[in-house]
């Protein structure tokens, strides 16, 4: 009955025809990557008198921003003739690129081998396995150690026929994904009024690619500021004018933080307008606040990016538009970031206001 009524009402009024129709993908899951909504963080924007927008990358088929890079890395290998039917993709990843690759590999009939630091959330490892990947969790090692996960992945690919090491850190196909998709989407979604962009970096593909596109299309007017967690060298690199790679401590965020300037980041790092350092206490507080006030259930990097956007907003004129990346959702990390014991162990509990402790649902 109710359904009939709705249908009749809809049919009788041309004004009810939706103006926007989400895309139809005729190329399977690959065509469903990207074209994500841009969400205004209404309460935060009201408080700041500046508009903070988050790109809802958790809405990608594999659940993160890294689906975009995964698709471009595979297309790049295919275009260069390195990957043929039945071939194998090998990659070193904190997890999300691996998950993106796993979806695309399944849909195109490729095998997938993943090297992942054994410090990452178990749920990412489980997801990779259930998507058919062969997974090698390995101890984290510095880049110049031959046992670093990148070198292990490269050697693995070299030992196989019809196999490619995707090399997301230094393969510029990653950055191209954001020059060709994320950047233009943001620009169009705000009709060209993008005053500032910020996000943190893992491979640097997102930050570098979006920065390159926005700087070009705005003729240098859009400001781009890189955000960095503890344990990463990017803040120190930018603020020292490229002289220092100093870093100390560590972060609970996963998928971001670097000990070097990757080839993807190197392309555009000299065009940035600055860097902000975001301590974990501010990130976890924002993660809980966004859940409570905006209804957004984010992973740590998305929350960190919003902290950075809010800091940058304070130095910009009223009504400026500041865009950042909501890289993934909280699902993969929930047994950590919503566990009282884990928060206590990491020294993060004290940063969460008492009235938000109701969200700490695990012991
Ligand atoms: C949750 C999350 N946020 C941010 C990033 C960083 O993105 P990029 O590698 O493009 O710098 C990653 C990378 O894996 C990630 O997994």
Q: Topology, please?
A:
Elements: H1 2-12, E1 38-40, H2 42-48, E2 51-56, H3 66-79, E3 88-92, H4 96-108, E4 111-117, H5 122-130, E5 134-138, H6 149-158, E6 163-165, H7 173-189, E7 196-200, H8 205-217, E8 223-228, H9 234-239, H10 263-266, E9 274-277, H11 280-294, H12 300-313, E10 321-326, H13 334-337, H14 340-345
Parallel strand pairs: 2-10, 3-4, 3-6, 4-5, 7-8, 7-10, 8-9
Antiparallel strand pairs: 1-2
Helix pairs in contact: 3-4, 3-7, 7-8, 11-12
The structure holds pyridoxal-5'-phosphate.
The site of pyridoxal-5'-phosphate has 19 residues, from α4 and α8.
Radius of gyration: 21 Å
Give the overall pLDDT as a whole number. Answer: 94
Please, what is the oligomeric state?
single chain
**How many helices?**
14
Q: Main sheet? A: 6 strands, mixed
Tally of DSSP β-strands:
10
Query: Low-confidence segments, ≥5 residues, pLDDT <50?
Result: 1-13
The succession of helices and strands, N to C, reads: HEHEHEHEHEHEHEHEHHEHHEHH
Bound ligands, each once: pyridoxal-5'-phosphate
Strand order of the largest sheet: 1-2-10-7-8-9
- Structural class comes to alpha/beta
Describe the structure.
Helix content is 39%, strand content 14%. The chain is an alpha/beta fold. The longest helix has 17 residues, at 173-189. The termini are far apart. The model is unreliable at 1-13 (pLDDT under 50). Residues 64-66, 94, 96-97, 201-207, 255-256, 299, 301, 327-328 line the site of pyridoxal-5'-phosphate (PLP).
